[in-house]
Amino acid sequence: AYYNRDYSANTENLLPSVSRPANLSRTFYGIMFDAGSTGTRIHVYTFLQKDPAELPILENEMFHAVKPGLSAYADKPEMGGDTIRQLLKVAKKTVPRSEWKKTPVVLKATAGLRLLPEEKAKALLNEVQDVFDESPFLVTNSSVSIMNGTNEGVLAWVTVNFLTGHLYTHTRKTVGILDLGGGSTQITFLPKSKKTVYSAPPSYIARFNMFNSTYELYTHSYLGNGLIAARLATLGALGADGLEWKVFTSSCLPKKFREEWTFGGITYKVSGIPDGYAGYKLCYYEVMRVIKGIVHQPYEVKGSSIFYAFSYYFDRAVESGLIDGTRGGIVEVRDFKKRAKEVCNKMTKYRPISPFLCMDMTYITCLLKEGFGFKDNTVLQLAKKVNNVETSWALGATFDYFHNLNIH
Ligand SMILES: Nc1ccn([C@@H]2O[C@H](COP(=O)(O)OP(=O)(O)O)[C@@H](O)[C@H]2O)c(=O)n1
């Protein structure tokens, strides 16, 4: 409804019911950079504000992504800055020149920079600030930052619930979100039961304001439990020394597989166990160590709310053939488990897709079941985009910029 008028499903909920004089509408733009651990993405949003008291209508999103992420330039920040400069060219093409000065440009970094030593992260952010300062867009001293995990979860929840039309209804029916990045993973939902709130660690409950009401969400970001960080942890390579000579092995990898593999600017030697066993069961025990006792099980997740799962949940579901990449789809937790078994027990078949597919699918299964405590029949809606807009925290962060949701 907001992006493409052909999407009429939720239009009634999304458009103000009373039509207002057209001259009160105004178009404005927002530029949000997502500096993730595996890539940097730019979102340029075009909004139409009809009523200053309501969230604006999203007219268009321009999206572009580059790999690798900023953290890969930890030792050459100027080159990291260049990736931002390149992406800003796209913004200049999208935003009319007359609007440049009024259009904010913001970059928020997630797990990739959270995991770097502070001085290296700072040098990268300073470089980005310089690139922003020389741009024609609106820049303040809070334009460039590392976002905290709570905001990452809350803002992705805002995005998905906005795009699915749930923020406009007064029923308080919403959807939960599951985001699996490279470095961190987030779970966020609106609890129905008070017990979920008081049985959770206090830092897992976040509040924010929108439309004069306060939302109280269950949210947490697990740093080091993103899919790529979890691979390293499973291999015992996260924070290990002797990387020049050590080879990290796992029964989640094809037996004859051997490769050098780079994440966050560091190269690791990894391999399967040539004369050992490989397969789902052994792999499950290995990934279990990365999850057991680390991930909190919310009281309510065993209930029946709908969760939207995106990022690597979506990518791996597509690669393993669980869903169709253009349409997305609905699966149950048990479908991930079934497919993980199939992938792990037929490693040669799936190896051309990715030698890590068994490890990744097993990790996802283990995270959902043993981590968050989802039941086998919990329904997951897998999506990369909703109504043609990226399911990322970036849209929520742009709302936060303009409306100050006061997340606390
Ligand atoms: N707008 C976006 C952003 C990330 N992603 C996916 O999210 C995964 C990695 O997330 P990330 O690099 O931001 O990881 P973190 O830094 O959040 O841990 C990849 O599968 C990306 O393709 C996406 O599909 N769309």
Explain this structure to me?
It comes from Megalops atlanticus (Tarpon). This is nucleoside diphosphate phosphatase. Its cofactor is Mg(2+); Ca(2+). Belongs to the GDA1/CD39 NTPase family. ATP binds at residues 182-186. The protein has 408 residues and is of the alpha/beta class. It has two domains: 11-146, ATPase, nucleotide binding domain (Nucleotidyltransferase, domain 5), CATH 3.30.420; 148-389, 2-Layer Sandwich (Nucleotidyltransferase, domain 5), CATH 3.30.420. The chain is 33% helix and 24% strand. The protein contains 13 helices and 17 strands. The protein has helices at 11-14, 77-94, 111-114, 118-133, 149-163, 194-198, 227-234, 280-291, 312-319, 333-345, 347-350, 357-371, 393-403, and strands at 26-35, 40-49, 57-66, 105-109, 144-146, 176-180, 184-189, 205-210, 213-223, 247-249, 258-263, 266-271, 307-311, 329-332, 379-382, 385-386, 389-390. The strands form four sheets. A seven-stranded mixed beta sheet has the order 8-9-7-6-13-15-14. Helix 2 runs parallel beside helix 4 and helix 5 crosses helix 13 (393-403). The longest helix has 18 residues, at 77-94. It is globular and about 70 Å long. 48% of the residues are buried. The model is unreliable at 1-20 (pLDDT under 50). The protein binds cytidine-5'-diphosphate (CDP). Residues 34, 36-39, 41, 69, 110-112, 181-184, 226, 311-312, 315, 384, 390, 392 line the site of cytidine-5'-diphosphate.
